[in-house]
């Protein structure tokens, strides 16, 4: 959690807290502060705190450490008479060596307390340490930090009063030789998130994989039985759909259910907050409430550090590790992806954290998939979207991001929402009463989809010997007694993928009654590398590889050198296959390489500038694609002039219409009318309309129907048509409210603003507003309210030419909401 607010609260006007970092072994917090002192850029302030720092009263200042010459430190452990420096989790680590190199510039680094004590711009000395205390702090800092050897040709530094020079000793954190052409990590003491710019990589890390490194890794995988052994590193995985509730009871029966404390906790929540503010603005106070509840409930026999928290609306993942294992955690990254309506809304989707633990790359995914018994295909689609879109950036920006399946170990937790099919509620409850979970599991949708290899190929799940975790009456153990009387189901699941993983338990926790779900936990034990055996195996592989490289020359053949994409459609995936045949005698690895002076190996294709659409199409390599004209991505003024399907129009005619036409236009685009008319006739009472995504396959049929005019009515479900309408509005090059009117609309919720819009844009605005007012008259059935509708459509009708901030989003919602009231008749 960000506690910089507590520090900022106690600072002066010209003092700014830049970064907060936690120590691993002591209850201390270290802060970087940007001061406007003369000749001083940054300082480390060491604070003590007794609890979670909320205000300035919760912390007290212990020491101040100046940082000169643009040098930066990322984490400090402060104890006794020594000051130990650690590389922390995540992206801060990869800045460490960069700061060393940037500060070096071919000269010795020195820090002068006399310069630090010079008066600042206000004529005041910031702090007054006596000389003995300064000397003691200097020793604490520099006897245990970075020791730099200057080049032999470097001139000796000029003497200054009380300078402190960085000297070489036998225990460096980072050893820098010569002009920093080579760097060497101390693998036992610290790990960096970034790759080492040297061939002298740590034996157990291999952080940057070139051709030779990948060949070595392949051989290591073949011989892993020689160096992998079972060590008791336990991962506690937990998932809990809390139904928008606040913590009302201790979570210890769930999180402290193991006799021995786990080494790692990965705790996932769904439906953390069901409020509209959380849904539309991703802001909720319940994040802190549930994080505190989890921290208080971790196993009492160990101390844990919160490594990472990631949240998308109501989907949250917390990653804790035992403090004694913290130094073996590196390369921490977090990402999220929404799979709700239009593939963006965060009410459904996933969050993920990836990290390196010892020598294993681990990825943890927490997801909330589509609801309702009949929507298993949409859940399958959500799973595939998450696998394809959840990507973690690497330390080297030139390298492609890591997908979920690129990790050695994958843990997947969450409310997967797969239900029990082909049994009614009475039969399900009867089997539960008999504890015949094996028979009941045969009707589980997830089990069937896995057997059909539709989802989670290569994943494993433990035997389910506990009763379904959904749905209960809140505050009790009674099955759902509401009017809908949901059939019990195992919605909440935990799966894993990888080698050398065994499960110790898989259970639900019935004592917790806060939600209509019950929490689930699994304790998994993961194998790790034996360092000595690994080193011997690695050395043998390297020797054999050296011999093989001397004897063999690599050779490969490509199946093609050019790629052609024909008839590219809006939101239609196209791929071409390249076959690379190794016709030599040595293993080979291929990669796309960058041209000189270019940042990436291939430039992305520009979006189509024709009136036929192409918005959102991205191709990686090949010749210029052939876009099929589509109403998606075509301006409103052009669509209003089209009386024939856009696919039947010659491209030259489309270009002329884009420039202008004397023919009287239609009032609104016929494609827009077809979608709205379908929804008005079939979906006016559809539950969760405009809040639940449609099927990708059905959208393709709707798009083709609109573009070709092949049918007089649209096929597909109501949710698919609703999403097709939203995508149509989102793809417009110029929104319904043109960019030129954006600021005026934010400043004034007046009918006069709409009256000033171009005729075709004004007609579309009024038509949509009238339809949505009719939709809101049936809110009892479709569960819509004016805030939800206004927020969804305001972001599409009133788009900013630049990125919107939170205040602008709220003003846009208020503007459109003005036209959704019963009295509005624009």
Q: What characteristic shape results from the CA principal axes?
A: globular
Which residues form runs of ≥5 with pLDDT under 50?
22-42, 67-209, 606-623
Shape-level CATH architecture of the domain at 233-533: 4-Layer Sandwich
> How far apart are the first and last residues' alpha carbons, in Å?
47 Å
CATH classification class of the domain at 233-533: Alpha Beta
What percentage of the residues does DSSP assign to strands (E)?
15-25%
Helix content: 25-40%
What can be said about the biggest beta sheet? 6 strands, mixed
Taking all residues together, what is the mean pLDDT?
75
* Full CATH superfamily name of the domain at 233-533: Endonuclease/exonuclease/phosphatase
| Number of helices in the DSSP assignment | 24
Number of strands: 26
Rg, nearest Å: 31 Å
How is the largest sheet built, in terms of strand order? 14-15-13-12-24-23
CATH topology of the domain at 233-533: Deoxyribonuclease I, Chain A
Class from helix and strand fractions = alpha+beta
Compose a concise summary of this entry.
The chain has 826 residues and is an alpha+beta fold. The chain contains 24 helices and 26 strands.
Plain-language structure description:
With 826 residues, this protein is an alpha+beta fold. Among the domains are: 233-533, Endonuclease/exonuclease/phosphatase (Deoxyribonuclease I, Chain A), CATH 3.60.10.10; 668-820, Phosphatidylinositol 3-kinase, Chain A (Orthogonal Bundle), CATH 1.10.555.10. It is 28% helix and 20% strand. It contains 24 helices and 26 strands. The strands form eight sheets. Strands 14-15-13-12-24-23 form a six-stranded mixed β-sheet. A five-stranded mixed β-sheet has the order 16-17-18-21-22. A hairpin with a 2-residue loop joins strand 5 and strand 6 (82-85). Helix 5 (211-222) crosses helix 13 (531-551). The relative contact order is 0.06. Mean pLDDT is 75; it is low at 22-42, 67-209 and 606-623. GO terms for molecular function: inositol-1,4,5-trisphosphate 5-phosphatase activity; phosphatidylinositol-4,5-bisphosphate 5-phosphatase activity. One of its GO terms (biological process) is pronephric duct morphogenesis.
